[in-house]
Amino acid sequence: MIPVHLLTGFLGSGKTTLLGHLLRQQDFARTAVIINEFGEIGLDHELVEKSDDSVVALSTGCLCCKVRGDLVETLADLLCRRDAGAVPPFTRVVIETSGLADPAPILQTLMTDATIGGRLVLDGVVTTVDAVNGAATLAREAISVKQVAVADRLVVTKSDLADAEQSALLGRLAALNAGAPLLQAQHGAIDPQLLFDAGPYDPCTKSLDVRAWLGEGAHDHQHERHDAEIQTYAIVRTAPIHAVTLTLLLETLAEHCGADLLRLKGIVNIAERPDRPAVIHGVQHVFHAPTFLPRWPSDDRRSRIVIITRGIPQAWIEALIDALDAEVAEVSAPVD
Amino acid sequence: MSAAAEDLTCELLKQSLIAWRLTGTVERRGDGAVYVVGNAMDIRIERAPPSLPFRWMVTAGRRRRGAISLPAVLRQVRETLDPDYARNKVRVAVTSLVPS
């Protein structure tokens, strides 16, 4: 399986500079890159120095709107060329979105297309935020808020230029996405190991790190983080949840929340399999099938579900789980 | 319907109206049913008779329909109160969350 990383961030936030720096690192030599540029004449791919054909420019439109099919075709073509030896045997793929792209539909495409499903695994989302203009951009551009909210890693760029503005920006980022580690890049320089392998699976160690993936610590106190548009909160349950309850919960969230459910990720104690926690992940109405870990990653066996939403109250989801689990328990109870 | 289940259903419906940004009230009445009132509609939610293959009966105006579970109740209530509601269907990813 080859991990796919999504690199996003608003226009001018430093994605290409960051990517250029990464590709000069030895650890990133075997990386295929897809750069989506919005406009007839793309330049970004010219700015990324790479000596082979594993940099592909997708300039036919914005990935999240028109060219999702093109993305799948490009990925499939890259895999074919890798198999044929036409490009080096890359071990990861980075997709740099256009600055105006909504990452959610791109994530959905990566999750649902059968053409690439057997070979690629979605790793995570890295979002760059410009320290100088980031706060103003977040105040003005809804898509920028969404790019931050769904991130697994946040990278503040140009921090050497913006001492005064940074505290307000960092506060806003924490309100939007407390679970994502906040990293700093100066002139694009950053330790690649901090940046990627953000999914629950670490391809280097071939192990699972669900706690880091969930951003635990940030949600320990169950505080709901409020922003004008986005809320992030963690649902924590001590009692195990029935498997059917989990299925009904995910179906109901998909049905009623749609695009307002920006992202959901969690580890769940399933009543029927208490020794093997289920890992869940969803973007809008698309969900991975729950994956059962071989064992609990720590002594903490509570179910923990991190939810990033636009306007879905935590109280509704809490009430939904309570009512569903009671109904499932009642149906499952032996008849006298 | 047990009192506890009735309480949970009532609370779920109250929170649902808030989540859906719909105006209305939810209350339990003396007949044991839960009533949702909104958008000039009265919706009555009660436990289905054992002879029917449903768990709930949802009555809105003259229309009385069965619902096999609480998600089905929620769908019927929202469709009744919000004519513009278009539900999303869950899609299951074909890619793995972690390599098998």
Care to describe what's here?
- The complex is a heterodimer of chains A (336) and B (100).
- Chain A has helices spanning 15-23, 44-47, 68-84, 103-112, 114-117, 134-140, 142-149, 166-176, 192-195, 210-214, 243-257, 314-332; strands spanning 2-9, 31-36, 55-58, 92-96, 120-130, 153-157, 182-185, 201-202, 207-208, 225-226, 231-237, 261-268, 278-283, 286-287, 291-292, 303-309.
- By secondary structure, chain A is of the alpha/beta class.
- Chain A has two domains: 2-225, P-loop containing nucleotide triphosphate hydrolases (Rossmann fold), CATH 3.40.50; 229-332, CobW-like, C-terminal domain (Hypothetical Protein Yjia, Chain: A,domain 2, 2-Layer Sandwich).
- In chain A, the strands form three sheets. Chain A has a seven-stranded parallel beta sheet with strand order 3-2-4-1-5-6-7, sandwiched between helices. In chain A, strands 10, 11, 12, 13, 14, 15 and 16 form a seven-stranded antiparallel beta sheet that branches. In chain A, strands 8-9 form a two-stranded antiparallel ribbon.
- In chain A, helix 2 (44-47) links the parallel strand 2 and strand 3 (55-58).
- In chain A, helix 3 (68-84) crosses helix 4.
- The longest helix of chain A is centred in the last third of the chain and has 19 residues, at 314-332.
- Helix content of chain B is 29%, strand content 28%.
- In chain B, a hairpin with a 2-residue loop joins strand 2 (34-38) and strand 3.
- Chain B has 100 residues and is α+β, with helices and mostly antiparallel strands.
- Chain B has helices spanning 3-19, 70-81, and strands at residues 25-28, 34-38, 41-47, 56-60, 63-67, 91-92.
- Chain B is globular and about 50 Å long.
- In chain B, strands 1-2-3-4-5 form a five-stranded antiparallel beta sheet, covered by helices on one side.
- Chain B has two helices and six strands, in the order H-E-E-E-E-E-H-E.
- The N and C termini of chain B lie far apart (43 Å).
- The chains are: A alpha/beta (336), B alpha+beta (100).
- The A-B interface holds A 1, 108, 110-114, 116-117, 120-122, 199-201, 203, 208, 248, 250-252, 254-258, 279, 281, 284-289, 291, 311-313, 315-316, 318-320, 322-324, 326-327, 330-331 and B 2, 4-5, 8-9, 11-12, 14-16, 18-21, 55, 69-71, 74-75, 78, 87-99.
- Strand 14 (286-287) of chain A pairs parallel with strand 6 (91-92) of chain B.
